[in-house]
Amino acid sequence: MKRGMKFLKKETEQYSEVIELIAVMSSIMKSWRQLMTSKLEETHMKPIHLKILEAVEEHGNIPLSAIAEDSYVTSAWVTNAVNEMTRLGYVKKMKGENDRRTVRLKLTEKGREALEKGRSTLIDELSELLQVLSGQERRELKKLLEKLEGAYR
Known about the structure:
This protein is mainly alpha-helical. 67% of the residues lie in helices and 7% in strands. Helix 1 (13-41) crosses helix 5.
């Protein structure tokens, strides 16, 4: 399946379905962001902090530009978040080996603890949310989401 869809006429049933899906997905994403922001604030973290900590843990000394690209945010936003995280003691900044202008990050012990708390919060909240679905519905949801994800590859 290609990313683009043929133009749908407004009066078709398929157009209405697409609009309804966009509204539902947007509402779920907005509610999830608000919930995670609220829950992570209890641990002095923001969602972008969790994303950065995960990227540093997974890739090691990763350049900030790569984190920004992977997170779909600007380098300036990542830089501000990293500055906050440095002040909180979650990461250490290091200059690049070959290019001193490049900043790389290293996870601190406090950062590892924050990452575990953030992941735990994420898992707890998602588990609670998914309780409204039966086991079969959760498996079907996973299957459908993977199918949609595959459409973008």
